[in-house]
Design goal:
This protein is α+β, with helices and mostly antiparallel strands. The protein is built from 1 helix and 13 strands. The termini are far apart.
């Protein structure tokens, strides 16, 4: 009888701890950047991504790589978009090697869209997460004629 009471108390304690943790995890405070732009939230804070132009050649959309920033897979948590952007056309894509330009810069085309969850936090502030697990590779967030490219190792 004492063993059953002890088991019930331990079970109740574990249930309370897990429910408390989940409620705190859901109420995660989003850091609002000082400037408009696209950011990656890492363990150390927000890191701003520089935009890259989407180019069109004979109906093929691509970007030319400009030494994108690299992040360890374990550090990437989510993305922050701050500013006035058309979020209806936002996509998250892997980038696939397409060839080189006349000056020798590597070109990358957009792969199949990766499913994302977009949460509006405040006016002009959005949190973007991948629905599935992120993997290693060359990726970009793409809105209209701008793409923010980065590498996850």
């Amino acid at each position: 009888m004492k063993g059953i009471k002890f088991s019930i108390i331990v079970f109740m304690f574990i249930a309370i701890v897990f429910n408390t943790y989940n409620s705190f995890a859901k109420e995660q405070k989003i850091i609002k950047p000082k400037e408009f732009g696209v950011y990656i939230k890492t363990k150390t804070g927000l890191i701003r991504l520089l935009p890259n132009l989407v180019l069109d050649e004979e109906g093929i959309l691509f970007i030319e790589s400009n030494k994108p920033p690299t992040f360890p897979l374990k550090d990437v948590q989510y993305f922050i978009i701050h500013g006035e952007y058309d979020m209806d056309v936002l996509t998250f894509n892997p980038l696939l090697f397409y060839g080189t330009s006349l000056v020798g810069k590597p070109r990358y085309i957009f792969g199949k869209d990766i499913e994302i969850i977009v949460n509006k936090e405040k006016d002009n502030l959005y949190m973007v997460k991948s629905k599935g697990l992120l993997g290693r590779g060359y990726f970009c967030l793409w809105i209209n004629d701008s793409a923010w490219d980065f590498i996850i190792e």
